[in-house]
């Protein structure tokens, strides 16, 4: 599959592994893929994220992804839905962290893994890579670029799509910008 990846897409995958290493995550997931996309400078996805106003709000996106990680993968929308049922996710996370330490619900580095050990991709991250390939093929393109990874992250519910939606970025918006439908400044 990786032989079809462009240099930009390969750089995103390597960058996602580096993000996992920096955050201490034992796995590479959707959040790491999104952060790696935001780190790109000259690529189709970087251009789209810039046009949508997300690149200059990278710190806000990173904070939102860190909160999702802290809550064990529960997005802000999920937490709000659970609050409607009387479940206070933040209180639960606080209690768990009080009992087991800060970040107890975050995907921690597995025991015995230190330094630059290879981190496995989560099932969700693998699904993003497969979806990106399907998107590229469906668009009649021979190679998978970082723009396909961005489209794949926004195409289905997940932590990256939820955080991007909170920042005004949806699949339709990304597709519009990639197809040259103009630039929009996200507020």
From TrEMBL:
Asked whether the UniProt record includes Ion transport among its keywords, one would answer no
Domain of life of the organism in this record?
Answer: Bacteria
Instruction: List the keywords (alphabetical).
Output: Repeat
Annotated Pfam families: Clp_N (PF02861)
The residues covered by the Clp R domain are 2-187
For this protein, the record's Gene3D superfamilies field holds:
Clp, N-terminal domain
Transmembrane helix in keyword set: no
- According to UniProt, the name of this protein is Peptidase
Species per Swiss-Prot/TrEMBL record:
Streptomyces lydicus
- Print the organism lineage: Bacteria, Bacillati, Actinomycetota, Actinomycetes, Kitasatosporales
């Amino acid at each position: 599959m990786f032989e079809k990846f462009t240099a930009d897409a390969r750089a995103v995958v390597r960058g996602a592994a580096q993000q996992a290493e920096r955050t201490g995550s034992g796995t590479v997931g959707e959040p790491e893929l999104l952060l790696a996309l935001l780190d790109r400078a000259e690529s189709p996805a970087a251009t789209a994220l810039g046009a949508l106003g997300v690149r200059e709000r990278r710190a806000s996106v990173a904070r939102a992804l860190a909160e999702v990680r802290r809550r064990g993968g529960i997005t802000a929308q999920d937490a709000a839905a659970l609050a409607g049922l009387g479940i206070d996710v933040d209180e639960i996370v606080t209690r768990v962290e009080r009992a087991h330490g800060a970040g107890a619900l975050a995907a921690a580095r597995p025991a015995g893994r230190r330094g630059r050990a290879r981190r496995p991709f989560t099932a969700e991250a693998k699904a993003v890579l497969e979806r990106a390939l399907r998107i590229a093929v469906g668009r009649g393109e021979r190679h998978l670029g970082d723009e396909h990874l961005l489209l794949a992250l926004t195409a289905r519910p997940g932590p990256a799509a939820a955080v991007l939606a909170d920042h005004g970025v949806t699949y339709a918006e990304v597709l519009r910008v990639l197809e040259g439908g103009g630039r929009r400044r996200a507020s």
